[in-house]
Amino acid sequence: MNFSSLTPVRARAAIFSAVASLLACPAHAAPEEAPRPENLAGLPLEQLLAMRTVSAASKFEQLISEAPSAVVVLTAADIKAYGWRTLADALATLPGVYVTSDKNYSYVGARGFLRPGDYNSRFLLLVDGARTNDAVYGQASIGYEGLIDMDMVQRIEFVPGPGSAVYGSNALFGVINVVTKDGSDLKGAQIAVGTGSLGERKLRASWGWHGQNGADLVLSASSYGRDGENLYYPEYDTPDQNRGVAEGLDYERAHNFLVKASYAGLTLSASHVRRTKGVPTGSFGAVFNTSNWTVDAQSMISLAYARDISPTVNLSAQATWGKADYLGIGDYPGDTRAQVTNVDGDHARWYGASVQATVTTLPRNKFVFGAELGRDARRDQFNFDVEPFRQLLDERRSANRSGLFFADEIRVSNNLLLNLGVRHDRHSTGTRSTSPRAALLYKLTPADTVKLIYGTSFRVPNAYELYYAYSLPVEAGSQITNPDLGHERIRTVETVLEHALGSAGHATFSVFQYDMRGLITQQADEETGALVFRNVAQARATGAEAALERLIGGGARVRASYAWQRSHDGNGAALVSSPRHLAKLNAVVPLAANTRLGGEVQCMSSRLTEHARTGGYCLANLTLVSSEVFAGADLSLGIRNATDQRYADPAGPAFVQEAVAREGRTLHARLSYQF
Questions:
Q1: CA 579 to chain CA mean position, Å
Q2: Residue 3 pLDDT > 70, yes or no?
Q3: Does 46 score more than 70 pLDDT?
Q4: What pTM value is reported for the model?
Q5: What is the DSSP string of 348-377?
Q6: 486 to each of 167, 220, 427, 483, 489, how far by Cα in Å?
Q7: Domains present along the chain, CATH in parentheses
């Protein structure tokens, strides 16, 4: 396959054309005055509220215009309108954010940073405020291996930039908070069935109840399956490798469960997911076109409590327990046999507790005091050949972590807000880190706010980077440990200008600079040639983002963004998998009574791979949603990659391929029924 089918010149032309269309849209689509109240009927109340408030930026509810970041909120209405089926689908629409796939996992990058194969450990993923990154890889799961079925998501809050001043490790490039639905959102029993291309099928059953005394309960279970397709990789095009065709290895199956109950300020939630995914790429030295698959399972339990103990003091606490298990099973070249079945895996167990007090005793100050304790009880990794049995890795570890944080939101005047925060973290692997954040917010006019933001963040090296090792001939992919690996740090400076379009929406423009020290990189050891993780790289990213979200007369909505970013290492060389340009457009248009068409266009410029470059591309997705096709029933019909665009993502050093091709055009349909 020719991965440069779309040249950089054509990619830039396509992107600039799309951006020009976006910029022209608001000027012609709506009158200059703010829409009348009846024009807001196209948006549900949750969408209007989400445009005003956010909780993930500072661990308390605040106006988006007063949050110390260029926050973006996506809602259940967006998920339905655009047919997003995974968290990766939703994140891919955000300004400056891009998502890749290696046919096993999905990876998210932001503002020019995406280290191939880092398992999203540089983003912190929360579900209802509880940390879900696992204790071995630090992985934030955003595909079908993720904890929450997208049908059960009430809103997604994305806080770009460093978040360690509030959350500690992992929050280098952003914090993602997924808020699940309540019983009042479901209002009884629901059932949904879906089908699509490549043997896709899904079934979900949910039930929600909300009592007059405030008690609330949600129960949900879903099952997803997909047969996938036969895939051709020219790098394996030899007679003994099936002419480069991987047959029947692209399948995926997932099962999700959610229980959530709340009463009188107390909320108990439990979620579980188990996924099996075929791996067709021959990655990590596996024998091509042979049985190779991964099994992921994750469970989380969270108990949260919040109460106003006085008119000026709010107390909240949360206890969490989590587990994650991974198995990678496949056929690999053997020493004495043609191939041998190998099992790679881990067991992660962690728990923790946090407490926070929000104090508004002084009229112009909002103080936040907090403490967090956690223990990674199991960080076990193993690897063995099945027959003949040979143990290659049996690593058992544990770790402790703690953090103290303080923040003060100071209302200096009616137009000036100062947000200060600092957190100190300790980790038993040796990391000691203090992370400050400061934001000065000035309201230039009733509609315009400027934010000057400074912050630092860090990431503790995970157990995989520190301790994963096995001994084989170098050509078979040996890896050695580096227990002296240090933590990563990032320092950011950002200026944000936000403009409110009355009740019709808002526009945002930001410029930023990220400086990173101690970037953890996998490389070959000079003496042995084995792979090892080291703090060897410095990196910098500079860029600008412009975004617009607007309600147009008649109930139509438009969201558009453009990002320019330049990322390079300490020697000035561009980073792998870092696009220079991103342009996006999302729009929802009413067609008839209870029927809406949602469309999105995503354009990305070319990116470096390990030794080459992928071409730029533009994707188009369409979703038609009809409510009340008959009493209680909603129907959704969608098409993804409508123009059947050929494109690929950089693959990373664990792959023979320079880039892994993404899917062509696919269709899907979904019918839900409310009892």
A1: 18
A2: no
A3: no
A4: 0.91
A5: EEEEEEEEEEEE--STTEEEEEEEEEEEEE
A6: 19, 42, 12, 9, 10
A7: 8-674 (2.40.170.20)
